Amino acid sequence: MSAAVVATGLGKKYRRRWALRDCTLEIPEGRIAALVGPNGAGKTTLLHLATGLLEPTAGEIRVLGLTPGEDPGLLPRFGFVAQDVPLYRGFTVTDMLAFGRHTNARWDDHLARTRLERLEVPLDDKVGHLSGGQRAQVALALALAKRPELLLLDEPLASLDPLARRDFLRVLMEGVAEDGATAVLSSHLISDLERVCDYLILLSHARTQVAGDIDQLLGAHRLLVGPRRHGGGRIAGVAAVVQEDHTDRQSTLLVRTDGPILDPAWEVHEVGLEDLVLAYLGQPSASALPEPRLATIRQEASQ
Amino acid sequence: MIWVTWRQHRAQFLGGAIALALLGGILLLTGPRIASSFHDGGLASCLSTRGADCGDLADRFLNQYNNMWFVAVLFLVVPAFAGVFWGAPMVARELEQGTHRLAWTQGVTRGRWLSAKLIGILAATVVGAAILSISIARWSYPLVRASDNRFIPPVFDLRGIVVGGYALFVVALGVAFGTLFRRVVPAMAATFGGYAAVRVPIDVWLRKRYMSPKVISFPLFGKGGPGIGFGRGDWILSSRIVDAAGHALSSRGGIDIDALASRCPSLQGVQFPGKDDLGTCLQHIGARTVNVYQPGSRYWPFQFIELGIFVLLAAGLVAFTFWWVRRRVS
Predict the structure, then answer these.
(1) Chain B: residue nearest A104 by CA?
(2) Is residue B100 within 8 Å of residue B122, measured between CB atoms?
(3) For residue B150, what is the DSSP state?
(4) Burial A53-82 (b: 16+ CB within 10 A, else e)
């Protein structure tokens, strides 16, 4: 399994504040990854580092095996939709497509045009007159017309109504499926992305807190409900307690498991992705990282 | 990429063309009148006659159109507008509106993106400056011919190739400030201020030093004068009257009667000395005129030197912009 994005000890400092710090992660090829974290966690910074818009202050990032900003050969191979969907508001949609055609050697005009026509986006209207959903579709069409191997989208759904969200995600999934591309979508809400993503990266406080296949993550976490628990006695099968809530008589634990939990004192429930994310965000010191992989990356980096 | 530059900046190019057309309109309204009185008054034929003394005709003609130079002085600031309205927004608007995140993640590198935009805008600047310079040169031809002085400021600044240099410089300054400040309006203001801050010292201090000036000295009276036509086309930097020993007759360079009185007994005690008495006195002390000047033959060398300075400044600013866009901006 090769990786579309590999970050090693990646950091970006603005004046005195670290926007992203010691970020080590790997996004495997072919995945649709959700980059989740509260506002200010460093999602935009990470995406800008991946596109070469920013240069790292520390560490290294490799995208499709190349260094963003250094290798011009990377630019045609990824598509990027930046936060707030920047477009030239005085341009018509047709002008925007011409802009893409003139700034990209690899450009599928037919694809972009038919896709926008099918969505009934008026091609002769100025971008500034379109609805938020239509603008997002234009930006997505521009990114997809590059036929990218990697698609990076920064808060693409933030300003869209539920119907526009559904349409946007549908077009995104079609596009990604056609080319077998990797996609990274950032959002501060996991519920936006839960339906389409199969990989989760959780950033908080400028660091990677959780990274992994969503099914594996869900499989490795359980919600335990049992009698009020005192002290930190180990429960067989629990690798770590991520979050615990106590009432007078009852304890609820969200745990990462390393084996089956057979203790009859505990009622075992499956965990939803949103609960999982919230539990980790509530406990910044807890983490779930694919340790063996990271170890090998560190070894590679130190060689 | 040229298409992108055109599409993004066509409104600005159109605005520039309209502004040039309006300025051209002012010149067209006033130009023909100046030209016809230049010809009909007989000054044109007089000036083309070898050895003719056209001083009175020329003075009358120049007095009639003296106010026209105020119109011309307006044109001194015109190149600044290219920097303010074309240069400053070029990168600043992208950064301000966040569209650089779109433009810089397409297939072309930032360097190519910047090159395409700069080539388009600088080419338009050169064309605009050429139109401006030629229009003013044609319009002002009778006035310059009559005064025979294209070397003195601000005439020097309005005609010839320097106009292109100013325009290239101020556009490059606008682009650089826009890249640095990332905001359109502050960049526009800084561009205007920066243009003045560079132009004024060069105008008043540096230009007269491009080549070491010549000095000519001749008696105030009698034989040995420079002859008719002296000073025509020259840029006289200073003119002083000195005595035979070379001491100035007054601190201001002119004649101070009180100071003279101590040296010529005929003037002592006279409240208002007559012209003859004064002349005798000046002759007695050997008064001479000393002019420091740049000869008119240096007009084109000076134009090229000034053009070179501004083109070099523009090149430096363009280099800075490339470096900043590639390395620093994000």
Answers:
(1) B107
(2) no
(3) S
(4) bbbbeebebbbbebebbeeeebbbbbbbbb
Partnered with residue A268 across adjacent β-strands are A224
Q: Which residues of A touch B100 (CB under 8 A)?
A: 53, 86
Q: Which residues of A207-233 are buried (b: 16+ CB within 10 A; e: fewer)?
A: bbbbbbbbeebbebbbbbebeebeeee
> Which helix (H) or strand (E) covers residue B33, if one does?
helix B2-40
Cβ separation A75–B105 shorter than 8 A: yes
Question: What confidence score (pLDDT) does residue B222 get?
Answer: 66
Complete DSSP assignment for B237-271 = EEEEEE-TTS-BSSTTSS--HHHHHTT-GGGTT-S
Spatial distance between the Cα atoms of A38 and A206, rounded to a whole number of angstroms: 10
B15 alpha-carbon distance from chain centroid: 25
Residue A138 and residue A94 in contact, taking contact as beta carbons nearer than 8 Å: no
**Whole-number Cα distances in Å, A233 to A220, A229, A236, A240:** 20, 9, 10, 11
Interchain contact, A99 vs B101, CB within 8 Å = no
For the segment A203-228, what is each residue's pLDDT rounded down to a tens digit? 988 888 898 999 999 999 999 999 88
A100 touches chain B (CB under 8 A): yes
Among A55, A76, A84, whose Cβ lies nearest the Cβ of B107? Answer: A76
- Token readout for A100 is 């893409």
How far apart are alpha carbons B129 and B161 in whole angstroms?
9
pLDDT(B149) > 90: no
Say whether pLDDT at B154 is over 50: yes
Task: Kindly report the backbone phi and psi dihedral angles of residue B150, in degrees, each rounded to the nearest multiple of 5, phi listed first.
Answer: -105, 5
User: To the nearest whole number, what is the mean pLDDT of chain B?
Assistant: 89
Q: Which of B319, B9, B317, B8 is nearest to B177 (CA)?
A: B317
Q: How far is B45 from chain A (nearest CA, A)?
A: 57
Answer yes or no: are the C-beta atoms of A42 and A3 closer than 8 Å: no
Per CB-CB distance under 8 Å, the chain B contacts of A155 are none
- Retrieve residue A93's tokens: 């949609």
How far is the C-alpha of B288 from the C-alpha of B298, rounded, in Å? 25
Q: What is the pLDDT of residue B183?
A: 97
| Residue in A closest to B98 by C-alpha | A86
Q: Tell me the angle at which helices B110-147 and B88-97 cross, rounded to the nearest 10 degrees.
A: 150
CA distance A78 to chain B (A): 8
Which residues sit opposite A251 in a β-bridge? Answer: A226, A246
Amino acid at B310: F
B contacts of A95 (beta carbons < 8 Å):
7
**Chain B residues within an 8 Å CB radius of A91:** 7
All residues at 6 or more sequence positions from B262 whose CB lies less than 8 Å from its CB, including other chains: B268
Residue in chain A closest to B111 (alpha carbons) equals: A72
Q: Which residue has the tokens 């519920």?
A: A191
Shortest alpha-carbon distance between residue B97 and chain A (Å): 7
List the single best residue of A49, A85, A88, A106 to mutate versus B (max B Cβ within 10 A). Answer: A88
| Cis status, amide bond into B154, omega within 30 of 0 | yes
What ipTM does the predicted assembly reach? 0.90
